# Entry
Amino acid sequence: MASTVSGATDLGPAAERVVDEGVTRKVALAALVGTALEWYDFFLFTTAAALVFNAQYFVSQDPFIAAMGSFATLAVGFVARPIGGFIFGALGDKVGRKKILMVTIVGIGVVTGLIGLLPNYLTIGLAAPILLVALRIVQGLAVGGEWSGAVIIAVENAPVAKRARYAALPQIGSPIGTILSSGGFFGMLYLVGQTNFEAWGWRIPFVAAIPLLAVSLWIRSKLSESPEFEALMESGETEHAPIRGVLKNSWRQILVGMCSALLGIGGFYLITSFVVFYGTKVLKLPTELLLLGSLLAATFEIFALIWAGRMGEKFGASKVILWGGVASALVAVPVFLAIDTRNPVLVVLGMIIGVAVLSIPYAVSGTALTALFNTRVRYTGVAITSNTAGVISGFVPLVATALVAANGNSFWPGAAILLVVSILTALSGLFLPGLSIKEKGMKH
# Structure
């Protein structure tokens, strides 16, 4: 059956079902655990790209050239994400959300473990960066279907009026992943010292992804399939060509949804991965300080996500996205000014404020994106939208690094990028309500 037209009422099973919030909470928590592992693995790569990959796999006398190679590998994973979104999104709309989530989490965890075992450039030469890129591509493909599926299964198991609350829970996987990854690197740096950390200590957090994967698989196996999708399967109304349906009928939703997700993804990588590089290589700040800043920023982000999720439930996701984008635009320059002072307290404070504010629209992006597409094509639509935003976001550290190098190591390119991204996300909040599916009890 063809997809419904944008903005029409989704007269599907969602309107008729009775929700058991006990099941809703279990599903949301299981989705949270899976996304925490997903972002742990993904953020390990982003932090390692700033700290060690430039020396381990991209050997160059010029630190900026080595960093560009490292961040280019980071960006490759984001390029692979929309391809994974197309593949796993379509499968998720055909065979079910739970099955695909089991596949994607395995792909992410196994690849991360293999990266930790990968020999460096001095050991196997050019094969090292080639294999690193290949693993990054596979990881990107798996991530392309992971976040969207986790958010969707949480939303489709939740009461319509409380979707913003439960959709914010998988988002908490992002700061938890940051805490685990930055904490892993910080702990190893503290235990083995800078020299041993750069030689082999950085590998330990990557290899640790394997036992974490086993735990995540066990928890995710307890997930309940989406009742909305089960109803579609029983009635034989699943979409046979979800990709075609989304691209033909919902291209406006994709464009606006991309902008709404841009700040939470691209802005985050700017304040974490790029700032770690800029702080260590340009400002000559201690690595431990930047990792501590990332840890504390992620800790405060958890509270920001919970609060913003409740605000989305109360006032609607689009309003939270609008004003969250405005707030981020206002702090863009002050955040980078604080970091540029080299004062340890101001550097950490700048990172905390930057991440906390950009997390406001991120908290409700799952609610906003799932509301743009009806049940039949929701997995495909959300996966394409979020991962296309991810492609742009993946190049943010690379572009920022290039602009900083071209402008005498000035901080202003980072601030300018954050400002532009914040404005785009704020503007998307104005268009989201008119493009969303209308459901009783849903505040847009």
